[in-house]
Amino acid sequence: MKNTKIVIAAGTGFIGTGLVDYFGNDNDIVILTRQPRKDHHRITYVQWDGKTLDNWSHYLEKADLLINLAGKSVNCRYTEENKKEIFDSRTNATQVLGAAIQTLQHPPALWINAASATIYRHAEDRPMDEFTGEIEDDFSVQVCKRWEESFNETVTPRTRKALLRIGITIGHQGGVMVPYMNLMKFGLGGHQGSGHQKFSWVHIADICGMVEWLYDNKELDGTFNCTAPHPVTNREFVRALRKAGKHYFGLPAFPWMLKIGAWIIGTEAELLLKSRWVLPTRALQAGYVFRYPELQPAMNQIIGQLPRRRYHLV
Ligand SMILES: NC(=O)c1ccc[n+]([C@@H]2O[C@H](COP(=O)([O-])OP(=O)(O)OC[C@H]3O[C@@H](n4cnc5c(N)ncnc54)[C@H](OP(=O)(O)O)[C@@H]3O)[C@@H](O)[C@H]2O)c1
Fold it and tell me: What are the DUF1731 domain coordinates in residue numbering (predicted)?
């Protein structure tokens, strides 16, 4: 993509940074954020609060692409207060973007909303995809369902819409690699829980790749799983990480250790123990070619991008 106008709501986080790196040199980027910083090169920061329709909506006029990534991180203790913010930050931002689009003369040509592959049930028996996946009703799934409903309910006749059910994203600028590398550093780079739980991952390059592919293929819309076509088990994941980082040994963490450890560091053991077994069937059927279909090359690429000092000191 070249010389397009791309608006990224909450483009300041891990995935947003990856998208800005990927598209930022050749396109004009507008980032909606609660904490604007100084504009630079072709990137403009615009204040919003993620819930109130305001002047920021004018920046969506004539956009070629709108990407919404807003949401409080789920990497926290699930207190009632945090749960409310996890829920509201996603649904409010999605609803207010939909409301903004409906006021515009020249609305964005395409709106891609983040969603999560966590919407599918804990699965150790068979993979879940867009056609046969089953959805259950724990807290994370309720968030995902309402988040998707907020997006799907909004009628935007002049804006094509696509939803990306994103898997656990790996990249050198953040996300799960940071805690995993910390565990590795303390010799805890073994599997978590039984280690048989599936880990549906995706390289950040494939999020960027799928966004560009959806933009180029104007006949596509609706829900797409954004996960690599070869998910692994938790054991295989940590083994690939150890291999890439040249750590030959790692102690495993049993479920009770994870529950205590998660409590101490203020997160939820569920994030590590849920078996996420998801396949990107629609993307494969429609011809998307993954840059990183297999984990080990993805992991090697990421570890290779890290300054050695950072890798050893995190
Ligand atoms: N990373 C993954 O593995 C993964 C997997 C599946 C789905 N996703 C989804 O993809 C989206 C982006 O993920 P990410 O890893 O880039 O997340 P991230 O690094 O936590 O960034 C999310 C951004 O959302 C904004 N935000 C946070 N709390 C907010 C609130 N209360 N109200 C409005 N905005 C708020 C922040 O932007 P400002 O501070 O600039 O406003 C933040 O930079 C999220 O919705 C996430 O759930 C991520």
Answer: 256-302
The string of pLDDT tens digits covering residues 169-183 is 999 988 888 888 877
pLDDT tens, position by position, 192-235: 888 999 999 999 999 999 999 999 999 999 999 999 999 999 99
Alpha carbon nearest to ligand 1 atom 29, residue: 72
C-alpha 78/C-alpha 249 separation (Å) is 32
Whole-number Å distance, alpha carbon 228 to ligand 1 midpoint, is 20
305 Cα to the center of ligand 1, angstroms: 23
278: its two tokens: 């998801």
Longest dimension (CA), the chain: 59
- The Cβ of residue 263 has, within 10 Å, a number of other Cβ atoms equal to 12
**Domains with residue ranges and CATH for the chain:** 5-313 (3.40.50.720)
3-state secondary structure 47-107: ECCCCCCCHHHHHHCCCCEEEECCCCCCCCCCCHHHHHHHHHHHHHHHHHHHHHHHHCCCC
Q: Which residue pairs from 176-183 have beta carbons closer than 8 angstroms and sit at least 24 positions apart in sequence?
A: 177/302, 178/314, 180/238, 180/241, 181/241, 181/245, 181/311, 181/314, 182/314, 183/250, 183/253
Please work out whether the CB of residue 91 comes within 6 Å of at least one atom of ligand 1. no
